[in-house]
Design a protein that fits this description.
- The protein contains ten helices and 14 strands.
- By secondary structure, the protein is an alpha/beta fold.
- It has a single domain, classed as UDP-N-acetylmuramoyl-L-alanine:D-glutamate ligase (3-Layer(aba) Sandwich), CATH 3.40.1190.20.
- Helix 4 packs parallel to helix 5, helix 8 runs antiparallel to helix 9 and helix 9 crosses helix 10.
Length: 307
């Protein structure tokens, strides 16, 4: 049974993303340092990232037509952060360029042995979009909408417009603060981190899923190397992560969401969507940075057949 009645191609835009774009400074160490220790940085690179930007690129690589709403500064980081989106054909006409502001940046430290990463981020408050900055006409032209908590007022406004216009809604949420909880309560397909689930439930992820609100058609918790857990029509679905040797896990959750959106708009059922998203997220860990190994659909499906 398909998760959503609307299919990709039915509107001019398949997936509209509202949220984060970033330029990341990514470095590798042999192991994460203890407090007060000194370790050699094995390498360093300046790479584009941001959770919504990466999710849209992943969805585009799989076959969706995408558009992006966000904000960058007028500094030297703006163009390289947006360059992959523009090169992939993602519409960026609604990106706001804020004079005198600094584009969001992150410092990502990746452990060579495990592929796990630690992220330190910095965002200029001037980049924050307000509810009035949301392009209603663009949402009405979209089959689905993906938001994060980068611009909470804008995300909430966009979700409410999407509900009126019949667009499927998804979210990327990591922390269980008030703004994040408000966003989750408005979403058809809330996709949250294990950390969010732990904050809202003292029991387990399955218990957390049942507290996501009546508007959720299918609620999902991403759990890294443990895969994903979802609740659909009262039934819990658990899908394992892809068995790989991760080079860099940065952006895996973003790719999961982009692939999940593709599966929903491709007319797939709940377990098929989860398996597709987990496989795409795993394959993305074979490259460097958030966007270094975004897989095409043929590669994801071939890996699923092998599994």
């Amino acid at each position: 049974m398909p998760l959503w009645p609307r299919r990709r191609g039915e509107r001019p835009i398949d997936l509209l993303g509202v949220g984060q774009v970033s330029l990341d400074r990514v470095g590798t160490v042999a192991r994460f340092p203890r407090i007060g220790a000194k370790l050699a940085l094995e390498d360093e690179a300046l790479l584009p990232g941001g959770q919504i930007a990466t999710a849209l690129l992943a969805a585009t690589r799989l076959g969706l037509r995408c558009a992006f709403v966000g904000a960058v500064g007028d500094d030297a980081a703006a163009e390289p952060a947006l360059a992959p989106l523009v090169a992939a054909g993602i519409a960026c006409d609604a990106v706001r360029r804020v004079r005198g502001a600094a584009t969001r940046q992150a410092w990502v430290l990746c452990e060579r042995a495990s592929g796990e990463r630690t992220v330190l981020e910095r965002r200029d408050p001037a980049l924050r979009l307000a509810a009035d900055d949301v392009p209603e006409a663009l949402i009405a032209q979209s089959c689905a909408l993906l938001v994060d908590t980068e611009h909470p007022e804008a995300s909430l406004a966009a979700l409410r417009i999407a509900r009126r216009t019949g667009s499927a809604t998804l979210c990327d949420v990591e922390r269980a603060d008030a703004a994040s909880r408000a966003i989750v309560s408005e979403v058809d397909f809330p996709i949250v981190s294990r950390g969010f689930a732990d904050e809202i439930s003292s029991e387990d992820c399955a218990a957390a899923l049942r507290g996501f609100g009546s508007k959720a058609r299918m609620a999902v918790v991403t759990r890294g190397e443990q895969g994903a857990l979802a609740l659909f029509e009262g039934e819990v679905h658990e899908v394992p992560a892809l068995r790989i040797q991760a080079l860099d896990t940065t952006g895996a959750g973003d790719v999961f969401r982009g692939a999940f959106a593709f599966g929903v708009l491709d007319g797939r059922g709940p377990r098929d969507v989860l398996e597709l998203a987990c496989a795409a997220a795993g394959l993305a860990c074979l490259g460097r940075g958030a966007q270094g190994a975004l897989p095409e659909l043929a590669l994801v499906e071939a890996r699923l057949r092998r599994a």
